[in-house]
Model the fold of this input.
Amino acid sequence: MDVSIDAITNNIQLALAPVFLLTAVATLINAISGRLARTVDRMRTIQNALYEGKFKDQESLKHMEVEANEAKIRGRLCTAAIFFDVLSGVFISLTVLELFFFQAGAARSLQTSYVIWTFVLGLISFMTSLLIVLAEVVYAYRSAGWRAPRNY
Done:
């Protein structure tokens, strides 16, 4: 095992390269969490208005029930996207650890295919999260109250 400062620096650089992907993962989690928070707030507002009987006519009442259900679906999509984004972060973190230990010579007995699989699974999870976010954004736009009754 080479313990020169150049070898240590090289090992750290190699192991930390995927950390830039972790920054993207964290940024996406933050964005999705904001969308989820707004969706939950909207759902609570609608439910409180429904329970308090603020909507007297059937058309407004029906519209609000539909909007509450749509908010629930959006919340589920956001939750699924966060799940896959966190899973991506776990796989990328495992990749960083594996690269560091491989470069340090501490895990020579492990196969290098572990690094490949954790990195690929991390990317697949990240892409899945992105696709779910895209679906949620499209659904949010399509379910917006463009045809809401005038009296609500």
